[in-house]
Amino acid sequence: MEQLKTIGRELAMGSQGGFGQSKEFLDLVKSIGEARSKAEEERIVLHEIETLKRRLAEPDIPKRKMKEYLIRLVYVEMLGHDASFAYIHAVKMTHDDNLVLKRTGYLAVSLFLNDDHDLIILIVNTIQKDLKSDNYLVVCTALNAVCKLINDETVPAVLPQVVELLAHQKEAVRKKAIMALHRFYQKSPSSVSHLVSNFRKRLCDNDPGVMGATLCPLFDLITIDVNTYKDLVVSFVSILKQVAERRLPKTYDYHQLPAPFIQIRLLKILAMLGSGDKQASEKMYTVVSDIFKKCDSTSNIGNAVLYECICCVSAIHLNPKLLDQAAQVISRFLKSDSHNLKYMGIDALGRLIKISPEIAEQHQLAVIDCLEDPDDTLKRKTFELLYKMTKSSNVEVIVDHMISYMISINDNHYKTYIASRCVELAEQFAPSNQWFIQTMNKVFEHAGDLVNVKVAHNLMKLIAEGFGEDDDTADSQLRSSAVESYLRIIVEPKLPSVFLQVICWVLGEYGTADGKYSASYITGKLCDVAEAYSNDETVKAYAVTAIMKIYAFEISAARKVDMLPECQSLVEELSASHSTDLQQRAYELQAVIGIDAHAIESIMPSDASCEDIEIDKNLSFLDGYVQRAIEKGAQPYISENERTGMLNINNFRNQDQPEALSHSLRFEAYELPKPLVPSRVPPAAVASSTELVPVPEPYYARETHQAASLPSVSDAGSTELKLRLDGVQKKWGRPTYSSSASLTSTSGSHKTTNGVTQVDGVSTSNSKGREAYDSRKPSVEISPEKQKLASSLFGGSSRTEKRASSGNHKVSKATEKSHVGKAAGAHSDAVAEKINSEPTPDLLDFSDSAVTSTAPSVDPFQQLEGLLDQTEATSTMNNGAAGASRTPEIMGLYADSAVSGLSSSVANRDEFNLASELSNAARTSQVGVSQLNKGPNPKDSLEKDALVRQMGVNPTSENPNLFKDLLG
User: Fold this and answer.
1) Closest to 876 in 3D by CA, of 915, 930, 810
2) Can you tell me the distance from the alpha carbon of 33 to that of 9, in angstroms, rounded to the nearest whole number?
3) Which member of 265, 345, 446, 522 lies 3.0 to 4.6 Å from 511 by CB, making a disulfide possible if both were Cys?
4) What is the 3-state secondary structure (H, E, C) of 572-633?
5) pTM as predicted
6) What phi, psi does 712 have (nearest 5°)?
7) What percent of the chain has pLDDT over 90?
8) pLDDT digits (tens, 9 = 90+) for 209-260
9) Which residues have C-beta within 8 Å of that of residue 658, sequence separation ≥ 6?
10) How many CB atoms lie within 10 A of CB 80?
11) What is the DSSP string of 892-933?
C-alpha cells in the first residue's frame, strides 16, 4: 500500500511538473491514499472503473486523454481489479508514431497481458515494425516488450530481427537484444539452440554492460553442460581480473566496489567450471586470492563478494592458501555482532568442513554462541552445521541438544526434520546399543506422530538386521535391550500411534526370543495395548499380529499354548469387527493355534522378518489346474485390456475355441441393415389406421461367417400382431450420429531461473581500518561450562568415524529369487470394418417401401450375438416359437452382463412392451409350429435395435467402447 501511495505521489508531482494530468487523476490518487478501509477503497475503484468505461465509449478521444486513461487503468489493475475492457485501447496505442504514446502503450500492454493472451497476436506485427525502426529508443521499447509478451509460438516471428540487433551500433540495443535471446532460451530452448555461439561473441563486447548481460545466459548454459564451456575459463578469469583491478568505468562501481554483481556472477561460473578439474582450478587461484585481499567485511556488498569467494573455494580443487584466507573471513563473520553475518559464517563453515573438517575446531566457541543465540533462524543453521560435524566422539552431545531443541519448538514441520536428523545420526554413530534404543524412544515420545512412517520402518529394519557384522551376540543384545525398554514404556499413557506400532512389532518378533519373558506375560501386555487404544485400528492390528507370532513361535518350539482369557475375548471381539482387516487377523490367529509345529515352522519361521521372499509372478503352480479346466471345456482367461477393447479385437476371433462357443463382445462397426424381403403371407384387412391388426413379419436376407446357411422362416409363424403405422406422421427423422475427439497438446517450455544474491552496502579496502575494528572488540571471558561443551563437541580425534549404514551391516540371509513371467499375447492395432456408404434406412419406419433384391453379405446384428448367454441361445433355438414368446427386456438383450444407465429407457419401453405382448398372444395361438432357427430372430433383432436407439446408442458408430456404459 505504501508503494501505491508513493507511485501516486510521484505521478501527482509529475503532473504538476508539466505532464498534464487532469484533476480527476490527482483526486483519484489522493482519495485512494486517504481511504480508511478496504471497503472504501473498493468503492472508489469501482466508481473509477465505471467512469473510465463511460469515457472510453465516447468517440474521438484525444490522444492525451487516452494516455491518461491508460495510466489510470494501470492504477486500477495494480489495486487488483479487472480492466480487461480497455486492453484493446492499450494495444491500439502501441501503433502510435509518437514515442511517448508508444511507450505508454507498451507499458500498459506489458502490465495487462500475459504471453498467452489472445490479443498478443495483434502486437506481433507492431513489434516487428518497431524492431526495424531507425530510432534506437523505439527499438529498446520493442525489445522490452519482447521479453514480456512473446511466447514460444511467436518466437520465430521476431527472432531474425533480434539476432540482427546483436550488431547494432548502440550498446543499449545490444544489451537488450542479449536479454531478449536469453528470454527466448528460457521459454523455448530449441528455438535458439543454434544461436548459442552469439553469447560467446558478445562476451568480448567492448561495452561492460553487454558483457555483463551475456553472463546470465552463459550461466544457465554452463549449469546444464559444463564440459562444453571449459575453454572459456581463461576468458572468465581475465574479465574477473580486470573488474577487480578497477579497469571498468566508475559508473559500474557500487558503494566504491567495482562492479560487484558482475564479480558475483563470474565467481559462480568459475565455481562450476573448476569443480573436479584441477587444471581449470589452478587458473583461478590468483584472481580469487586477490579478491580476498581487496575486499573487507565492513560493508554488505563486500561481504557478499567474500561469501561468494568462499563458495568458489569450497567447490574448486583444494588449495591450502585459499583455504586459510577463507577461514579468516569466516572468523570475522562469526565474531560479528550482526546475525546476518553470523548466519553467513555458519553457512560458509558448513561448506568448508566438507573438504577440511579440522577447520571447525578453530571456531568451536563461536559455534557454541550461535547454538545458544535467541535467534531461531541462526540456531537452526547451527544445527545443520553440527549435523555435518557429527562423529562418534560427539554424537551424544549433538543429538541431546537436537532433542532438547525439538522439545522446545512448536513448529511441527521442523520437529519432523529434527527427528529425522536425530534418527540418522543415531543409526550412523551410536556408541552403544543401549544409547541407541534410548535415543529412539525419546524421539518417538516427543515427536509423536510427526515422525515419518519411514523412520519407524527403518528402525524396525535396523533392529531386525542388527548392528554388528555377522555378530549375532551384538544383535541379540540390541533386541533384548529394545524389548526391555519397550516393556517399561508400554505402560505410559497416550503414546504415539507410530511408536506403539514399533513396540508391538518388536515384542511380537523378539519378546520371547531370549527366554527372559514368558509368552503369557508378553501377550498380556499386548492385549492391554489393544484394549487401551481400542479406537486405533492400526495399533490393534499390530497387537493381534504380534500375539499370533508369539503363539506360533511357542507352537514351533513344542511348548504348550494356553490362551489368556483377555486374549480370547479380544479375538472374539475382533472376529465381529466392522473392519475386514481386523476380522481376517483374528481368524488367522484362531487358525494358527490349531496347526501343528511343522506347518508353523514353514508358515512363520522365527527371526525371518528380513528374509527374501520368493515370488512366482506367473503363478506357475496353477498351470496344471488351468490346463485340466480348459480340457473340460472352460473358457480361457481374457485379460482386462482385451476385455475393454484396448488390444486387437482380432484376438477374439483367432482363439482356438469354436466360433459357436466364443460369446465375447465384439467391437467392429455395424453394417447396414438388410433390406426387407416381402413375405409370402398376404396382409390382413385393416379396419382403421389405428387398429391393431396382424402384419406380416418382414424377412431379412442374411449371410453369416458360418458356412452353413440358415433355414427359412415358416409361413405360418411369420405373422404377428403389430401397430399399423400407415398414414402416421413420423416423429423421428433419419438419425445422424457423429463423434469427435479433440486432442489437446500441451507444450511447455523449460524455464531456468537465475537467482543472484544482491546485498547493498559500503566497501573499503583499508586494512588498517580492519585491524582497528578488530582491536575495538572487547575481550570476553569464557565460562568453564562453555569450555566443557566446546571440548565435548570438538574434542577428540578430528577424523570422522562413521559407522556403516544399517543397510550394509549384514549380508542378506537369502537370495531374492523372482520369476519374471514372459508377457503373454501381442499388442496389435484394432482394425475397424468400414461401414457401407449407402444411407441407413430407418429401422423404426414400418411403412411400405420399395424392396431391393440385393442381399448384403453380413447380418447387421451379428455383432450382438456374443451378448447372449450360451444357454439362452441354445434354448431359443430348440424351443422355437416358445422361446420367442418371452417379452424382450433389456436384461434379455445382454444376458448376464452388467447393465448400467437403463433408467432413462423405462418410459420408452412401455409402448414397445404393448406391441410385444400382443405379438406373443398371436404367436402362442399358432399350434404345431416348431422349427430350428440358428442365429438371432430377425424380428427380435429389430426390437433390440429399437431399444438400443431409444437408449441413445449409435448402432453405426465405430467407437470401440460402444457398449461400455451398458456392460460396465
Assistant:
1) 930
2) 9
3) 522
4) HHHHCCCCHHHHHHHHHHHHHHCCCHHHHHHHCCCCCCCCCCCEECCCHHHHHHHHHHHHCC
5) 0.58
6) -75, 155
7) 35
8) 999 999 999 999 999 999 999 999 999 999 999 999 999 999 999 988 999 9
9) none
10) 9
11) HHHTTS---S-GGGHHHHHHHHHHHHHHHHHHHTS-S-----
